[in-house]
Amino acid sequence: MSEELPEIKPRRSPGTSNFHAKFQRYRNLFFRYWWVALLTVPVAVAVQYWRVNYTPPQFSSYGQMIVNIKLNQQQGAIGSLYQEELGNFVGTQAAIMQGGTVLTRAKDRVASENQGLAACLVKVDVAVLPKTTIFVLHAVGREPQYTQKFLQACMGEYINLKKEMAAHTSDTTIASMTEQIQKLEPELNRVDEQISAFLSTNDLAILEQSAVMNNYVTVLFQRLAEAQSQFDLLNAMTLDQNLLIEQQNQPSRLRAGSMGDLSSSGNVLVNADVASTGPAGGSTIGNDYLSIKQQILLLKSDKERFAEYLKPQHPRMVSLDDNTARMTRILAIYRDQSLEQLEARKSALQLQILNLKKETQRVGKESLELASKRGEYERIKARGGRIQALYDQLLTSLQMLDVNKEISPETVTVYQPASDAIPQPPEWARNLILAALMGLGLAFLILFIVDRTDDRLNSYTELQEFFDEQVLGQIPREGRRRFSVDIPLLQAEDKRTAFVESFRNLRSSLLYLTPGGTSPRILLVTSSVPNDGKSVTAANLALALAMSGSKVLLVDADLRKGLLHTRFGIVADQGLGQVLSEKNQDWRKLTQPTRLPNLRLLPRGKVQKHSTEFFFAADMQNFIKEAASENDFVILDTPPVMAADDAATLAPRVDGVIFVIRAEQTSARIARASLDLLHQRKAKILGVVFNAVRPGVGDYHYYDRYKDYYSTKG
Question: Which of 20, 277, 479, 666 is the most buried (most CB within 10 A)?
């Protein structure tokens, strides 16, 4: 019985795997199309060089201005609300200096003061010297004289604009404060009238007692809760339970005589103390009731004890019966009295609860009315206090303002007038670096467009992302030898370590594909389109199986363009086509030996244009059965799925299909359609082989890293 294999958890989350796949795809795409950057970067640099070299020269003029600011340090002044924060002051002034208002005024000023001077477009930049309020203005234009005059006009118009803003701010500030003060005066008068009207109908001393009333309501609620609790307890307990609790709560002064000698009938009433009453009213009767009940129990106990050796007519027994009867009558009297006292106490508690409820409702209503009136009074006072504080603050700020002085707290000084405009040398390094970056960005844009339109698979990670089928192995890209058209097949002492080990890995994947079961023996190798390497994969897989000692038959089932015989260096005019088209052809005689004794090749033979019809015949099914019974493995190399229907026809008749996908060439969309067609024909797809993988990709574990491991040196 085979053990259940543990579930293998993915090493990466879906988001990480997707990012890794995209990264590897763009990395491989850049390695494939690196020459695009070699075209776009030089072109961009050349265009930028031409543009800078043939652009008319620019002239620069510099000027400096000092803007001092004096902040009002008085806390709480309304005037501080109209001042800018120091942290934003510098940025605000720089924006004003190069704003549209200043530039438009400067342009009009230069035009009016310098008739006939040729105008040009001037760009103004503003910078601030570190840890100062010195603004450096830089103007760039094509006409040197106009550029200088324009910069000087900008500084003058900035000063004029600040003066206008200061005057407007002064008028606006004073008008706003005066308007606010005029609005607050009626509000203050209205609050005073509300307070006077409230005090005329309410006694302030009584309002101050609302807190005392709240405490009194709390005490009433506590007393009501205690009385209700006692009443409920009396209703829930029996008479004996009530009397026992009273006896426990009060000091008993009758217990000394309750257990006296009961042999004489004369002391029973004395012990019971029927006529006595307690200080609480009824408590002594209750105690006597319990005492008499205990004495009756003692008399009955004595009677039972004397009955063992005395007759019922014995004077002692008769005396005990008389005493017991007398005490029983007395007990009934005390029980009735105790019940009357208990009911009286309940009635008293009920009356007390009723009175407490009425008093609580009355006092609570008065307390709520007082609290509501007191809250209304406090709200009026608080509103009046807020309005008065705002009024005083506005009045103080208005008195601090001097309308005869400039309200604006900053002063502007031209520290350095606009200098003579001098030619500005082109920034070759900056322009060329910027052009190179733009060229590189264009290259990445082209690669992105190529990636969006190209669905060819580049890496193992992308293969896993697009396909659910199992990946049986990865075959590294192997170059052709000199003067050779095809890639050489596997050799016994092959030096291509990674290439050989990849097919050994594919062989192991097939042998251990079904742990504890039977490995597939009749294998069909196909692909979606031509030139994906299916024939090379089929031939090398057959060689790898034969090298392990298995008896293998390799069949070239591509009756149109099959060339397996040329790869093995065999000349054969007869093959599978003749076995299926001619009668009484023994396929065994048409197989050709290879360099491995346990590997034989059945070539395609003569070209057959209608090969699909032969695959439907019974001769093909008989051939597959006979070949499988005489060999360990039978490998069929068929045409691509999208090129002919041969592979889709043969696929349901074999044990499994191996689908070959060529890296950087096979379209994922076409490969998916081919696999769906095979699934539709009920073919058993063992998995895919990723062929011609570039060894430089990040997720390919190629064996060339460990060449020294295969060295025979001791």
Answer: 666
